[in-house]
Amino acid sequence: MSEQPAATTEHPVAAWSEDDLGVEGRVLDVVRAPAVVLSTVGEPVDPCSPDSVQLAADLVATMRVSPGCVGLAAPQVGVSAQMFCVDVSEHPKTRGHHGTFVLCNAEVVASSRNEKAREGCMSVPDLTGDVKRASRLTVRGRLPGTGEEVEIETSAFEARALQHEIDHCQGLLFVDRAAGAHAIYSRKTYL
Amino acid sequence: MSTDPAAPTSLHAVTVLGHDRPGIIAEATGRLAELGLNLEDSSMTLLRGHFAMTLVCAGPVRALEIEQALAPLTGDGTLTVTVRDVPDEHAQSHHTGSGWVLTVHGGDRAGIVSAVVGRVAEVGGNITDLTTRLAGELYLLIAEIDLPADADVAALERAIGDAATGLGVGATLRAVEADEL
């Protein structure tokens, strides 16, 4: 090869693609509350295992076919595991982003600047709620397939999405973080 | 109260109003549970320190029976309980409009709420949630509003702004949309 691929200078998360997994993702059913799996702390995963690689591909495939979906966590497809995918690149509120990626065993390393916003979730389709989340965030996790440990610094909408998905992996829904007794609303779907 | 004792309606709106004290909700919901009623939606807050709760519960129990079961709550004369049968109104899952939050705040005076929400009603806007508070001299109103798809939002903003200016208060109308995560 005569040219150095541009991706080598990119952040490993931004450079990641589901094509790296080498398996076809399957579209899975999204489970809804009160499914017990949504309130169960997910098991840590071996990011290099074939099951994890397949789950990662499945999560991305399921996110892709779900309109407006910017993230999906394993418990939402009925698997009690600490893995999720995110892609906020097309969302109007996005500032910076890292494209499509999957993280295993992710944890928040640092967070600051809480902001309140209204969230909805495919697993709680009839409600929305005001939730305070950090708008500056550092997350550490492992990429599926290689198992490489990565750290992401992000902000704004991607930061919110990451916290929402990490919560799913810990058995928490946005309603667990409602800003108050009157901060949960009936879903309104505007056509 | 059900008119046909053989076929009582299954949905009941219960209100409990009056002097606040610990244990009102526990007692009221305990008595409803004993009747086998299922709490569907409820809302409770303190209004100027007064306990104010409305709940909608379901079950094949007559309103009179519920009133009798809750009667001990009113024993000391500081709480009022009402029970009404209500029709089953399924929340609309699809609206052909948009969601907004209206905030009004300023010095307290009579007529703030009616003047401002009157502008909303004129364009067919529906208030789905409302809180007003008086804290010292500060009056605050926050309302969740559904506006029809054909509402002229800019014109409504001007109308609300004019009403607010006339009252010497500030008003903000902002779109509210949940982020799908």
From TrEMBL, chain A:
GO terms for molecular function: metal ion binding; peptide deformylase activity. The keyword Hydrolase applies. Its EC number is 3.5.1.88. It holds the Pfam family Pep_deformylase. It comes from the Bacteria. The active site is at residue 165. GO terms for biological process: translation. Gene3D superfamilies: Peptide deformylase. Its cofactor is Fe(2+). SUPFAM superfamilies: Peptide deformylase. Keywords: Hydrolase, Iron, Metal-binding, Protein biosynthesis. Coiled coil: none annotated. Fe cation binds at residues 121, 164, 168. It catalyses: N-terminal N-formyl-L-methionyl-[peptide] + H2O = N-terminal L-methionyl-[peptide] + formate. It is an enzyme of class 3 (hydrolase). The keyword tRNA-binding does not apply. Belongs to the polypeptide deformylase family. Removes the formyl group from the N-terminal Met of newly synthesized proteins. Requires at least a dipeptide for an efficient rate of reaction. N-terminal L-methionine is a prerequisite for activity but the enzyme has broad specificity at other positions. HAMAP family: Pep_deformylase. This is Peptide deformylase. The gene is def2.
From TrEMBL, chain B:
This is Glycine cleavage system transcriptional repressor. InterPro entries: ACT-like_dom_sf, ACT_dom, UPF0237/GcvR_regulator. It comes from Nocardioides dokdonensis FR1436. Residues 13-86, 101-174 form the ACT domain. Pfam families: ACT_6. PANTHER family: UPF0237 PROTEIN MJ1558. SUPFAM superfamilies: ACT-like (SSF55021).
